[in-house]
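Handout for the seminar on molecular recognition.
Each group receives one record of this type.
Step one: identify the two inputs.
Step two: read the structure output and locate the region that could contact inosinic acid.
Step three: write two sentences on what you found, then compare them with the reference statements printed after the record.
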Amino acid sequence: MNQFNQMRLQPEPPLPGHRLEILHEEQDIRQRIAELSKEIREQLGDKDPIVVCVLKGAFVFVADLVRQLDFPFTVDFLRASSYGDSVVTSGEVKLDLDLQQSISNRHVLLVEDIVDTGLTLKYLQSNLESRNPASIKICTLLHKPLNNVKLTHIDFCGFEIPNDFVVGYGLDWQGYYRNLPYIAQVHQVSK
Ligand code: IMP
């Protein structure tokens, strides 16, 4: 263990009323991202793609993923919201922040944190398709296949997980827990 690791602060404890159960440790995530980056390189390595990060949840994943990609590409950001502060989807998706770059004739890699019902992805895909990209490929860190009411094809998937609410590694509960280096299921416990 080097000096930096020894000095690293422990992540925050759970909020009152929560117990966290780790689903994927930091090391698992790092390993899976290395594998994903090879798959992405095979399909997009010679295509000068634009990597589109879906804010806010995908920011940690994208930061780690792009540093594993050793070919030319650009990065842009958009923000979609469907959830508000609830853990239950409102069913409505809107674009809060749009891309700055044109994707016309570009190969797009759309990167999500999690595909739950698939509503956000479905909306974003059709929105981006209307801008005449050369192609769109979908990458998500997490996928809850049991909850997909609007199934969309996913090209690159980190982990399939059960239909439970998870936090960490960019994913939040009411804005909290994005800094956790692992992915954990949140259990409600009596206070
Ligand atoms: P979908 O439209 O139902 O697929 O949900 C997409 C968005 O909901 C994701 O980009 C997340 O921001 C949020 N979301 C869905 N499930 C979870 C979860 O388990 N933890 C945290 N955020 C989630």
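Reference statements: The chain has four helices and nine strands. The chain has a mean pLDDT of 90.
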